[in-house]
Amino acid sequence: MKKITLILLVCIVAVACGGKKEVKQVSQESKTATEAFALAETLKTAFMTNDAVTLQKNATENGLRDITANSKTFDRVDLSFTPRWVEIEGSQVMVNIAWKSTWMRSGQRSDERGMAVFVMEGTPLRLSKILRANPFVFPEK
């Protein structure tokens, strides 16, 4: 009896696992959110390497103004972004990003953290403005 029960159980498991796996299509919202995350990383890398061409290509005039609002010079900056939330309203995408920065200037180190909202628009997405705490601005201390 135990052998029959064991064989029956193995057959049930084999039939249950043997079916085709359903492949779900990726939604347009998911694709847009992934594109927004990639754009934020591109902007961060371009800022850290001082790549003005990439910044101009991936931001509108207002967005570029927000990125380059830093009036102080610095020797080096390390940024880390952690996307927290994405809101998609029509053609506008708002990405909430928690960020940390370490700025080096004349041998002085300054650490900062905050939460920013990157507003992105267009196809492909481009940064149109930064709301709240701008990660691209040298901290005032």
Summarize the structure.
By secondary structure, the protein is of the alpha+beta class. It is 35% helix and 35% strand.
Describe the structure.
This protein is an alpha+beta fold. The chain is built from 4 helices and 4 strands. The protein has a 4-stranded antiparallel β-sheet, with helices on one face. Strand 3 and strand 4 form a beta hairpin. The termini are far apart.
What keyword list fits this structure?
single chain, 141 residues, alpha+beta, 4-stranded antiparallel β-sheet, 4 helices, 4 strands
Task: List strands and helices in order, with pairings.
Layout (H helix, E strand, L loop, with lengths): L1 H16 L10 H21 L3 H6 L3 H7 L8 E14 L2 E14 L2 E14 L4 E7 L9
Antiparallel strand pairs: 1-2, 2-3, 3-4
- Structure annotation, total helices: 4
Give the proportion of residues in helices.
Answer: 25-40%
Strand content: 25-35%
Quote the average pLDDT: 86
Q: What class, by secondary structure content?
A: alpha+beta
Residue runs with pLDDT of under 50 for 5 or more positions:
none
Largest sheet: 4 strands, antiparallel
- The radius of gyration computed from the alpha-carbon positions, rounded to a whole number of angstroms, is 23 Å
For the biggest β-sheet, the strand order reads: 1-2-3-4
Shape: elongated
Report the count of strand segments. 4
Distance between the amino and carboxyl termini:
79 Å
Question: From N to C, what is the helix and strand string?
Answer: HHHHEEEE
